Amino acid sequence: MSETQPNEPKVLIPEVRIQERIQELGREITKEYAGKEVVAICVLKSSFIFYSDLLRQIDLPVSCEFLGVSSYGDRRVSSGEVKVTLDINEPLEGKHVLIVEDIVDSGLTLAYLQNNLRGRKPASLKTCALLMKPESMKMEVLVDYVGFKIGSEFVIGYGMDYAGKYRGLPFIGYFEPGH
Ligand code: PRP
Prior knowledge:
The chain is of the alpha/beta class. Helix content is 21%, strand content 29%. 1-O-pyrophosphono-5-O-phosphono-alpha-D-ribofuranose binds at residues 43, 45-47, 69-72, 78, 101-110, 161.
């Protein structure tokens, strides 16, 4: 794929399928955390839409925290360096923490986050990711709840961007090779 301005994205996962899967994830999380309070961490920026949809499908007391990290900048390939752009000030010690990510691509961001958050001594630490790219992963990271496994295509929409654009698309899209 070139780094030139792409054309119209194609639909990889339609809106209705995303919402169905989120309902299933919400039910699973509600069941597994029954009787517990959860601290759900939204990994900014791109998880914000998935996070807000998922949260409304979890029938438990949930505290919301926001953590900003970035490693892609305007590129389609990770820079290899994870930068914290916004940290959580609340203590997480003894809490049941759920990381909510839109996508695990190389796994670098999640490996960094899990390591960072484990250091804050939560009672438990799990991860829910809407998308996972098994063929692109460069690190071994455990993802407890996965929405969809996809190929190595660069995806946009439903919170995810290319050079800051396309986050508002209601579906998950991709660009055809050559665009
Ligand atoms: C994206 C995504 C994940 C990360 C996954 O964030 O939200 O956090 O990349 O990629 P990895 O598994 O290769 O590390 P990005 O750096 O694009 O920042 P953004 O969420 O602010 O768009």
